[in-house]
Every structure is written in structure tokens, then in C-alpha cells.
Design a protein that fits this description.
The chain is α+β, with helices and mostly antiparallel strands. 34% of the residues lie in helices and 29% in strands. It has one domain: Histidine kinase-like ATPase, C-terminal domain (Heat Shock Protein 90), CATH 3.30.565.10.
Length: 138
């Protein structure tokens, strides 16, 4: 089975649940386990939250793009913002590191995403944005 979707949505936190459910609906015919589904939705939530909170500093008038491809082997996903980017990706990927300590952010977003994915990559350019690519095998 092959399917794909591309979405562009405004950077409002309220959209996160809508996007999670859209992806769940996309893969439901593949009969995922509840664990698989919950982990995938968690990764998507973390990635989009990072776009909104860190990439756009909570501005609600920016856009996030997401492409999801489903095939017989995996779900592959790209999530991209065009915000401020990440100066030091390795530092940002360290557990408990956060640029938003005043907001009581845990700094575990990348750690959680990596834990639930089979492949995980971050590309970022300062003042141009950040792209997350991950795959999750069935």
C-alpha cells in the first residue's frame, strides 16, 4: 500500500491535534498497533511543537509544512518550519537542553523523537528554518 499527503498549516498549537489525527487516519488501513500509533503521534506532536515554540517563538501567523509517505515498510515524514533555525544542532539534541527554560521546557523533544523512530535527522540553517526527517518501520 502506498499513500502520501502534504500539508501546510498555520503555526497554532491548536492545529497539532488536527494534524496528529490526520496522520492517524492516513495510516489506519495499515492496521498499526496502538503503540505504533501513539509513538508516531507523539513524534509528530514534538516536531510541530518545536516548530511553533522554537522556530517561530510562538508566533501564530507562520506556516509549518509536513509531508507523510506510507508504504508497506514504513511511515516517512518531513516536518519543516521557516523560522530562526538552530545554531548548534548537536547541543539542541542533548537531553535536557532547552533554549526556553523560562517556559519550563524539559529539553527532551529530540530525545523522545529519536527514541520512537527508526531513523531521525535534523537539518537547520540559522534564519532559514529547520527540517525534521524521520521514518518509523512497521
Amino acid at each position: 500500500m502506498y499513500n502520501e499527503i502534504f500539508m501546510k498549516f498555520i503555526s497554532k498549537r491548536g492545529n497539532i491535534g488536527i494534524i496528529r489525527n490526520a496522520v492517524a487516519a492516513l495510516i489506519i488501513d495499515s492496521n498499526p498497533t496502538i503503540t505504533f500509533l501513539n509513538e508516531l503521534k507523539t513524534v509528530i506532536s514534538e516536531a510541530i511543537t518545536n516548530c511553533i515554540v522554537h522556530g517561530y517563538d510562538n508566533q501564530e501567523d507562520q506556516y509549518v509544512e509536513m509531508k507523510v509517505i506510507v508504504d508497506d515498510e514504513k511511515v516517512a515524514c518531513d516536518i519543516q518550519d521557516y523560522g530562526k533555525g538552530i545554531e548548534d544542532i548537536e547541543q539542541a539534541r542533548e537531553p535536557l537542553f532547552s533554549t526556553k527554560k523560562e517556559e519550563e521546557r524539559s529539553g527532551l523533544g529530540f530525545t523522545i523523537m529519536e527514541m520512537f523512530c527508526d531513523t531521525f535527522a535534523v537539518e537547520s540553517k540559522v534564519n532559514e528554518g529547520t527540517k525534521i526527517h524521520f521514518t518509523k518501520n512497521w
